[in-house]
């Protein structure tokens, strides 16, 4: 059965994707998480995109994060957010080591827990911690971006 499924999958061409629509992170405290993303990343809430339930309670907000390129939704899900400590759901790109060093100074000034800059697989990285304990990586982008040399090899 497994070989049949793999054979069918390999013969099917996927429809087109056009990139990420938005990112979504669960949080335990919507207001605190919104304030944290605003302080650390200059994120701005887009009030017209707030998610409100039938009882009138706001359960999600959408943030515009400069440089991210897609909206970030913070969703009030305390149980899911309790599983995040130590997990790194998102890695954000920074242009170069100099900018990563500026992030180090910025995070230190804000009192945000973070690692020192370290060498990564394809650049330099540092890791910071959200109020829920999730890890967000800041990683230098490779010179020239993710070009053809990063593409997966063709399958036979």
From TrEMBL:
Taxonomic superkingdom: Bacteria
CDD domains assigned to the protein according to its UniProt record, in alphabetical order: VOC (cd06587)
Domain VOC stretches: 19-141
Organism (species): Actinacidiphila oryziradicis
Record's protein name: VOC family protein
Pfam families membership: Glyoxalase (PF00903)
Record InterPro entries: Glyas_Bleomycin-R_OHBP_Dase, Glyas_Fos-R_dOase_dom, VOC_core
């Amino acid at each position: 059965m497994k070989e049949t499924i793999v054979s069918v999958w390999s013969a099917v061409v996927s429809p087109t994707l056009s990139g990420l629509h938005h990112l979504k992170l669960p949080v335990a405290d919507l207001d605190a998480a919104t304030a944290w993303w605003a302080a650390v990343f200059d994120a701005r809430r887009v009030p017209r995109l707030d998610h409100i339930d039938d009882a009138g309670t706001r359960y999600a907000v959408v943030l515009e994060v400069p440089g991210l390129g897609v909206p970030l939704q913070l969703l009030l899900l305390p149980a899911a957010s309790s599983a995040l400590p130590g997990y790194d759901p998102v890695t954000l790109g920074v242009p170069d080591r100099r900018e990563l060093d500026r992030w180090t100074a910025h995070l230190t000034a804000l009192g945000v827990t973070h690692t020192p800059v370290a060498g990564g697989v394809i650049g330099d990285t540092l890791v910071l911690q959200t109020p829920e304990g999730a890890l967000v990586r800041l990683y230098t982008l490779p010179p020239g971006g993710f070009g053809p040399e990063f593409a997966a090899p063709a399958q036979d």
